[in-house]
Write a structure and sequence with these properties.
Tumour Suppressor Smad4; seven-stranded antiparallel beta sheet; alpha+beta; six-stranded antiparallel beta sheet; 3 domains; 4 helices
C-alpha cells in the first residue's frame, strides 16, 4: 500500500463519524506537510509504506498528531489513530472496503482500524462508520452493516429501500464476504478485499528461490554474480555471467539495478541496460542464463486488478 492511500485509509477509518466533515481537510493538510518535509519530498506519498524506516513512521505520526491538535481532536481519538497506525504496520493481513465509483471513488476503509465494538454501519447518515455520498438518494441513511464473527466478515442489509447485493445477487439475511466480493448499495459499488503483507524480493524464475531485499537498506548495494561472496549468487558454471555482474541499489525510496562492467550485459524486460535502471514491480532481469523477477513489497490484494472495473 502506498503512503498516500495508507494515510487516507487510516485517518478515514479511525476518526469517529462525527468528524467526517473535516476528515478530508485533515488528510489534505497531513499530505501537504509530508510533501514539504525535506526528509520526505514530493514523491514520498507514492512510495510503499514498507519503504519507510521506524524513524520515518515516527515523524509521520508526529505530523498527524500535530494536525489533529489544530482541529481540536480529542486525546482519545488521537490515541486510537496512533494505535491504528501501528496495527496496520505490524499486521500480516487486513480487510478493506473500497468505494469503486461516484464522488468517493478510491476511498478505502480498513476494517481492523474502525473503532467499533459491535458492527460497522454503512449509509448516508453522518453517524455511519462508512459514510456514503449524502446526495445519493438510492442509498438509505442506514443501509447495511458489516459484522465480524468467528474470524470472518459478514454483511447484512438493514431494511434499506433498495436492498444490498453481493456479486449481483440480492442478499436476504447475513451473508459472508469473501476476497474480491463486490457489494452494491444503491448505485454505489464497493469492493471487499483481503490484503496480505508482502516483502520486496528478487525471485529466481524456474526455481523456488527468493532473496528478500530489506537488507538493501542497511548497506550500499546487493551484488549479483557467480562469485560466492555475492548476496545473490548465480550458478558457478554459467560462464555467460560474470563473477561480479550487477548490483541492486536503494535510493530515495526506489530500487535500481546497475550493470558493473560485465562481459555479457544485464537485461531488464529483454532490453540491455546501459546505465542504472529503476525497477518496477514485475520487471524481469536477465543475467547470463538466469532470469529473475523483481517483486515490490507492501500490502497487496490477492491478484485483483482494480483497473478492470468499469462503472455502469
Amino acid at each position: 500500500m502506498l503512503l498516500e492511500a495508507f494515510l487516507s485509509a487510516v485517518i478515514s477509518s479511525a476518526l469517529s463519524p462525527g468528524l467526517t466533515k473535516i476528515r478530508e481537510e485533515i488528510v489534505k493538510k497531513v499530505k501537504n506537510r509530508i510533501r514539504s518535509q525535506k526528509s520526505f519530498g514530493e514523491r514520498a506519498l507514492n512510495r510503499p509504506i514498507s519503504d519507510f524506516s521506524e524513524k520515518d513512521h515516527e515523524e509521520i505520526r508526529n505530523i498527524v498528531a500535530t494536525t489533529l491538535d489544530e482541529y481540536g481532536v480529542s486525546k482519545e481519538i488521537k490515541n486510537t489513530l496512533a494505535e491504528s497506525y501501528s496495527t496496520v504496520l505490524s499486521t500480516k493481513s487486513m480487510h478493506v472496503i473500497m468505494i469503486m465509483n461516484g464522488i468517493d471513488k478510491g476511498r478505502e476503509y480498513i476494517l481492523e482500524v474502525i473503532n467499533v465494538t459491535e458492527d460497522i454501519r454503512i449509509g448516508r447518515c453522518p453517524v455511519c462508520e462508512i459514510r456514503m455520498d449524502e446526495n445519493d438518494r438510492t442509498i438509505s441513511r442506514h443501509h447495511a452493516r458489516l459484522l465480524f464473527e468467528n474470524g470472518a466478515y459478514f454483511i447484512e442489509d438493514t431494511w434499506s429501500t433498495n436492498g444490498t447485493k453481493v456479486d449481483g445477487r440480492e442478499i436476504n439475511g447475513k451473508t459472508r464476504l469473501y476476497d474480491k466480493d463486490r457489494i452494491k448499495i444503491g448505485q454505489a459499488m464497493l469492493l471487499f478485499s483481503e490484503r496480505e503483507r508482502a516483502i520486496t524480493v528478487i525471485e529466481r524464475i524456474g526455481k523456488e528461490t527468493r532473496y528478500p531485499l530489506d537488507k538493501i537498506k542497511m548497506r550500499e548495494d546487493i551484488r549479483i554474480g557467480r562469485c560466492p561472496v555475492n548476496e545473490i549468487p548465480l550458478d558457478k558454471d554459467d560462464r555467460t555471467a560474470s563473477r561480479h555482474h550487477a548490483r541492486l541499489l536503494f535510493e530515495k525510496g526506489e530500487y535500481f539495478v546497475e550493470d558493473i562492467c560485465s562481459a555479457g550485459g544485464t537485461f531488464v524486460n529483454g532490453k540491455k541496460i546501459e546505465e542504472k535502471k529503476k525497477l518496477e514491480d514485475g520487471d524481469e532481469i536477465k543475467i547470463g542464463k538466469t532470469l529473475m523477477r523483481f517483486r515490490r513489497g507492501g500490502m497487496r490484494s490477492r491478484g485483483y486488478d482494480y483497473g478492470t472495473y468499469a462503472e455502469g
